[in-house]
Design a protein that fits this description.
Helices cover about 55% and strands about 10% of the residues. By secondary structure, it is an alpha+beta fold. The protein has a 4-stranded antiparallel β-sheet with strand order 2-1-7-4, with no helix packed on it. A 4-stranded antiparallel β-sheet has the order 6-5-3-8, with no helix packed on it.
Length: about 325
């Protein structure tokens, strides 16, 4: 297409080389030309703007013809927009899916926060339980010593009554009673010893301590090495790792790991650190990036859809229109 607009008379004839002939052609679009045209005693001065499609598509309608006067923004050509509407709708649906994914990621991160807090308390409880078992071991050993003392007293009584019965000072029945008391004392001693062994096994220690060590001997730091404590540490570390916190070192104890996390926590509050990590959780960051990408895809799809309506960029007159309905135009 070509356009002409306006004219200017001159007082004298201009040389032939000052005359300008504007000839415009396009392969698949329109040309808008702007010229200033004179009479025989005038000159021609003008410029042209090429109007071409920004997408490849089939021409549906052409709303202008040669010599048509158009204003900036007037609709010139309509391209088939069926496919582009579908793509825009798909991009919109993809954005909704991405937003739902972000919501789910945030909800998942919050659930992980709750799980991390629970794991933290489980770790503290596991350490406390081991310490309680150490205290229980000491109590059991004390009861065992008391039972052994009672057994010794019962044995002395039984022996004395046995000798007295032989001398006829007491009856045989009285001696038998003391012998029964001795058996019961021995049973209590065995029960107390089994209780000590049970607690030592629960502490993941051998039933009998090393030679020369007392029954209530517990290696230092057992509350950091116990399997229940390490399992709780693993759960806490896993939940925190999902929130972006580094895993503990291989030889790092639970107390050392917790101390390291506290150093990074605002005010040393681990719960505050856990809460703060929701927004920075890897899953949330990934979901947010997907939303951003989906928004850009939708904007591009809507922009492509808008390209199905080819408009005039400036005021002018259509010249040399060579596009018709049914033509397939290429981008540019």
């Amino acid at each position: 297409m070509a356009t002409t607009a306006g004219s200017k008379e001159t007082p004298r004839r201009r040389p032939w080389w000052r005359r300008v002939v504007v000839g415009l052609a396009i392969l698949a679009g329109a040309v808008v030309a702007f010229t200033t045209v004179s009479t025989d005693d005038a000159y021609v001065n003008g410029h042209a703007t090429y109007v071409a499609p920004r997408i490849g598509e089939t021409v549906e309608r052409v709303l202008v013809d040669d010599t048509a006067v158009v204003r900036k923004g007037d609709l010139l050509v309509v391209l088939d927009d069926a496919m582009w509407k579908i793509r825009a709708a798909q991009a919109g649906a993809a954005l909704e899916v991405a937003r739902k994914g972000l919501d789910q990621a945030i909800a998942g991160a919050r659930a992980q926060v709750a799980a991390a807090k629970a794991s933290r308390y489980k770790l503290a409880a596991a350490i406390t339980q081991v310490k309680d078992q150490v205290a229980a071991l000491r109590g059991a050993v004390a009861r065992l010593e008391a039972a052994r003392a009672a057994e010794g007293l019962a044995k002395a009584e039984a022996d004395r009554y046995t000798e007295a019965a032989r001398a006829g000072s007491v009856t045989k029945e009285q001696a038998d009673i003391r012998r029964t008391d001795l058996e019961q004392a021995r049973a209590r001693t065995r029960a107390a010893l089994e209780d000590v062994h049970r607690i030592r096994v629960a502490l993941e220690l051998p039933e009998e301590p090393p030679a020369g060590r007392p029954l209530d001997d517990v290696p230092r730091g057992q509350d950091q090495r116990h399997s229940s404590v390490l399992a709780a540490l693993g759960s806490l570390a896993l939940e925190l790792a999902r929130l972006g916190v580094a895993l503990p070192g291989y030889y790092e104890t639970p107390d050392e790991f917790v101390a390291k996390v506290k150093d990074k926590a605002p005010g040393g509050d681990i719960d505050a650190l856990i809460d703060r990590t929701v927004a920075a959780a890897p899953a949330v960051a990934t979901a947010r990036a997907q939303v951003d990408q989906a928004e850009q895809d939708l904007a591009q799809a809507r922009l492509n859809l808008s390209y199905c309506r080819v408009v005039a960029d400036v005021d002018g007159v259509v010249s040399n229109r060579n596009v018709n309905p049914g033509d397939i135009v290429a981008q540019g």
